[in-house]
Write a structure and sequence with these properties.
By secondary structure, this protein is mostly beta strands. Helices cover 0% and strands 45% of the residues.
Length: 110
């Protein structure tokens, strides 16, 4: 999906408002002075308040399914604001799409 490239300082939340932290696997390619986010990075969620009747069931990580198709960083597709992802609970239950709200506006990928 096309859109502005996501970097490690981007403001991403899970569907329930938990903050996503990006642990870059390859910090060599920078946009806006920060490493770009790629499919191989770890996207960890903290502070998700989602709960079901059986108890808390928060998002713990984001798994991206549709990254940029034509732009890579060291062989890994980059994540864009238009990329499709899914929040996952600890038991891998899907929780909803992530929301990349604040990204750098200058570098766009297809």
């Amino acid at each position: 999906m096309s859109g502005p490239v996501v970097h490690v300082g981007a403001g991403i939340t899970c569907t329930h408002g938990g903050q996503v932290t990006i642990a870059p696997g390859s910090p060599r390619v920078l946009v806006g002075g920060q490493p770009v986010a790629t499919m191989s990075d770890n996207f960890l969620v903290a502070g998700c308040a989602f709960s079901i009747p059986a108890g808390p069931h928060p998002c713990v990580r984001i798994q991206w399914m549709v990254p940029a198709t034509r732009v890579t960083s060291l062989g890994q597709p980059v994540i864009t604001q238009g990329s499709t992802g899914l929040g996952l609970a600890a038991d891998q239950a899907p929780q909803g799409p992530p929301i990349p709200a604040v990204v750098q506006p200058r570098v766009v990928a297809l």
